[in-house]
Amino acid sequence: MPKENKIRLFFLKLRKRKTYRRRSSSQKSKAEHTLHKTSALTLVTSRLSHFASIYKTTHQIPLTYHRVTIRNQSSRWGSCSRKGNLSFNYRIALLPPELADYIIVHELCHLGEFNHSKKFWDLVEKTIPNWPQLRAELKVYNKTLF
Fold this sequence. Notes:
Blueprint: H1 3-57, E1 68-71, E2 78-80, E3 86-89, H2 97-109, H3 118-125, H4 131-145
Parallel strand pairs: 1-3
Antiparallel strand pairs: 2-3
Helix pairs in contact: 1-2, 2-3
């Protein structure tokens, strides 16, 4: 067998191994997603309605959301679309309650301010006054859960 063919065969085998390993870890992630999706959705919807009612009644700020989804995002805890759809990572169910509340309020406040301006952080601070501490604590969980 010529040397060029041996090299080509070597790289083909190496590529197959890497692909296999990727599938293996993504299958594990899919299984975890399926396992925690329902509890995450229950947690998020109940806390969203709780905080939305606080903003509406106490602060007279109506924050209306449309659809809530739980996803298997690789590096985000949550996101908010301009249409008012909120997405959360299933790993939110694995966090301590105060960190989950911070993420939920953070995304809910994007419905009022679609950026990270001072107005946005003032809105977050109305219900989560210790948000800087929780944000720093969340970075520790980023390293372990992602």
